[in-house]
Design a protein that fits this description.
Structural class: mainly alpha
Largest sheet: none
Order of helices and strands: HHHHHHH
Radius of gyration: 23 Å
Shape: globular
Strand content: under 5%
Distance between the termini: 68 Å
Number of helices: 7
């Protein structure tokens, strides 16, 4: 008695006639993901040794880490959160850095970039403040803007502010290591030498969060939602769904 012919692997895979086989394409090039990861692999240990672990509580540093994670996950939400949180503040950083280069003191946000006591390499790493906003805009163009970013970043920012307020050194705190950051995210005002005195400090933290939301987070959310929805509707080959912001 003859045995049945062995089934091939191909015959075991069901194929629907006329239905094309689709392969999901990555929206972010692998090279960009690897480059971002390599930069973090250098920045994190250098910053940790120079400034300490609490330095990563800054909005910008947290956003950098989330951005690289969002690139690997191709998460529109993570990228959108970072854009809501830092696009406007980073523009101020750039304006202050440029004014310092020209010899003018603007907001004193980037004075550390001209501190000769800090290694030039460490200060050079901080130039990510300049290219991170451009990277975020490019990523939004590929992944789209997720309207949930406003509420998600608001929760994260509130958590970071509260941690900075209760667990990190205040403005004017004497520290053995002068590189340890104080007054993180400006929870004590814009003068690192002493806390603000014009209002109760607890009330100030609440007001500061409100100002950030009204002046930075909300306007950025509205602008990005409008810009990227319009781009998606006008582009025949849009890589993202315009329903994100409807």
């Amino acid at each position: 008695m003859k045995s049945a012919a062995p089934a091939t692997v191909g015959s075991a895979i069901p194929v629907v006639a006329g239905e094309p086989v689709t392969v999901q394409q990555h929206k972010i090039p692998l090279a960009a993901k690897v480059a971002g990861t390599a930069f973090l692999a250098v920045l994190v240990p250098v910053y940790w040794q120079t400034y300490g672990l609490t330095n990563f509580l800054w909005f910008c540093d947290a956003a950098l880490i989330l951005t690289v994670a969002g690139m690997w996950l191709e998460s529109s939400l993570l990228i959108s959160m970072c854009a809501v949180g830092i696009l406007l503040p980073q523009c101020l950083w750039l304006a202050d850095f440029g004014s310092n280069l020209l010899g003018f003191h603007f907001l004193n946000l980037t004075s550390y970039m001209f501190d000769s006591h800090l290694p030039l390499f460490t200060r050079g790493l901080s130039l990510f403040h300049g290219w991170l906003p451009l990277l975020l805009v490019w990523l939004l163009g590929r992944l789209g803007y997720d309207k949930r970013a406003l509420s998600a970043w608001t929760v994260l920012a509130a958590g970071l502010v509260l941690v900075c307020y209760f667990f990190t050194p205040p403005a004017g705190a004497p520290l053995a290591n002068p590189n340890i950051p104080i007054n993180l995210n400006y929870v004590y005002g814009f003068n690192d030498r002493q806390p603000q005195h014009w209002v109760n400090q607890n009330l100030y933290v609440i007001l500061w969060l409100g100002v950030l939301w009204l002046v930075a987070f909300l306007p950025t959310h509205l602008a990005l939602c409008k810009i990227f929805v319009a781009h998606a509707r006008s582009s025949k080959f849009a890589l993202f769904d315009p329903r994100h912001c409807q």
